[in-house]
C-alpha cells in the first residue's frame, strides 16, 4: 500500500499538473468507486491539493473538494499540457489509459485528462463541500505525523517529545508501534525497516525499554528515510505509479528493506536477516541491530 512518501509524491505532481485546470466533464465507469454528485464539480477550477495521511483532497474554486484514497492499486494518471514532456506510460498501468481498469475520467479544459485506474477497486473518490473535509472522522482520528513535507492543515505534528511519550507507554515491539497509524502517521513497512536499521535499533525491542539516545536517533532516522522516499518519488512496489505515468524509485535506494541475505552495508560483519513481525516482513542486521 502506498505510504506517506508515495502519497506526498502524488500530491506534489497532482498539484503541479491540475492547478489552474477547469473540470469540463466527468465520466464515471464504476459507481462504487465514485461517491457523490459529479455535477457539483463541473466548470470549476482546481485551486490546490492537500494531503491528510493517505487521503488526498483536491480543492476547487466553487467550494467543493474531491477526496480520494487510492488504497492498494489505485492510480491517477494525468495527460495534458502541464506535463513537461510526454512520458512513456509505466507497465504497471495495467491496460493503459483509458483501458479496462479505468474507472473514472476527469476531462479537463485545454485537452487535459485525469484518469483513475484501479485493478482491485478498493480505492475511492468522493465529492464533498470543502468546509466539511476537516470534519471527516478519518481526519480527526489521524495520528500525528513527522514534519517531512508541507504540513497538512489539521494534522498534529509528531515532535520528538510526543514520539518519546508514545513509545514510553507501550511494551509492544518498537516496529509495530511505528506502523500503528492511530499512534503516528506516515511510517509504513518499508520506511519502518529502513529507519530502524539506520538508527541501529532492533525492531523487536519493547518500545518503552528504548533509551533516550536511541529514541532520538530513531526519530531522526524516520525523518531521513521519509524525506529520501519523497526525493525518489516514492517506492513503486506493486501498482504504485506517479501521476506523470512513470514510477517512483525509492525501491532502488532502500537501506535494508528487501536486502535479505545480503551483507550489511554498514558493518560488513553479518548478513541481513528477514523474519515476520506482526505478519509483516522485517529486515535487520543481527550485528548492528542487537
Ligand atoms: Zn550491520
TrEMBL record:
Reactions this protein catalyses: 2'-deoxyribonucleotide-(2'-deoxyribose 5'-phosphate)-2'-deoxyribonucleotide-DNA = a 3'-end 2'-deoxyribonucleotide-(2,3-dehydro-2,3-deoxyribose 5'-phosphate)-DNA + a 5'-end 5'-phospho-2'-deoxyribonucleoside-DNA + H(+); Hydrolysis of DNA containing ring-opened 7-methylguanine residues, releasing 2,6-diamino-4-hydroxy-5-(N-methyl)formamidopyrimidine
Organism listed in the record: Candidatus Woesebacteria bacterium GW2011_GWA1_40_43
SUPFAM superfamilies given in the database record: Glucocorticoid receptor-like (DNA-binding domain), N-terminal domain of MutM-like DNA repair proteins, S13-like H2TH domain
The protein, known as: Formamidopyrimidine-DNA glycosylase
Family the UniProt entry places it in: Belongs to the FPG family.
SUBUNIT field: Monomer.
Record Pfam families: Fapy_DNA_glyco (PF01149), H2TH (PF06831)
Annotated keywords: DNA damage, DNA repair, DNA-binding, Glycosidase, Hydrolase, Lyase, Metal-binding, Multifunctional enzyme, Zinc, Zinc-finger
Amino acid at each position: 500500500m502506498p505510504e506517506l512518501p508515495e502519497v506526498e509524491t502524488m500530491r506534489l505532481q497532482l498539484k503541479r499538473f491540475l492547478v489552474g485546470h477547469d473540470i469540463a466533464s466527468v465520466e464515471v465507469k464504476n459507481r462504487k468507486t465514485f461517491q457523490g454528485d459529479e455535477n457539483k464539480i463541473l466548470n470549476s477550477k482546481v485551486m490546490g491539493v492537500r494531503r491528510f495521511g493517505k487521503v488526498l483532497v483536491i480543492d476547487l474554486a466553487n467550494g467543493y473538494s474531491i477526496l480520494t484514497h487510492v488504497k492498494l492499486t489505485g492510480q491517477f494518471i494525468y495527460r495534458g499540457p502541464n506535463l513537461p514532456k510526454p512520458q512513456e506510460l509505466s507497465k504497471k498501468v495495467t491496460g493503459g489509459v483509458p483501458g479496462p481498469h479505468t474507472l473514472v475520467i476527469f476531462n479537463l479544459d485545454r485537452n487535459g485528462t485525469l484518469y483513475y485506474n484501479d485493478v482491485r477497486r478498493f480505492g475511492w473518490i468522493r465529492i464533498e463541500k470543502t468546509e466539511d473535509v476537516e470534519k471527516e472522522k478519518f481526519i480527526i482520528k489521524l495520528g500525528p505525523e513527522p514534519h517531512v513535507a508541507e504540513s497538512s492543515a489539521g494534522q498534529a505534528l509528531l515532535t520528538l517529545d510526543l514520539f518519546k511519550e508514545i513509545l514510553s507507554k507501550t511494551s509492544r515491539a518498537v516496529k509495530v508501534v511505528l506502523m500503528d497509524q492511530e499512534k503516528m502517521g506516515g511510517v509504513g513497512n518499508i520506511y519502518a525497516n529502513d529507519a530502524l536499521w539506520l538508527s541501529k535499533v532492533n525492531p523487536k525491542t519493547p518500545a518503552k525499554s528504548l533509551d533516550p539516545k536511541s529514541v532520538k536517533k530513531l526519530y531522526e532516522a524516520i525523518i531521513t528515510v521519509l524525506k529520501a522516499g519523497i526525493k525518489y518519488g516514492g517506492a513503486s512496489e506493486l501498482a504504485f505509479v506517479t501521476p506523470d505515468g512513470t514510477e517512483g524509485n525509492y525501491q532502488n535506494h532502500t537501506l535494508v528493506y528487501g536486502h535479505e541475505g545480503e551483507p550489511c552495508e554498514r558493518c560488513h560483519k553479518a548478513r541481513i536477516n528477514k523474519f515476520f513481525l506482526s505478519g509483516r516482513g522485517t529486515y535487520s542486521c543481527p550485528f548492528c541491530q542487537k
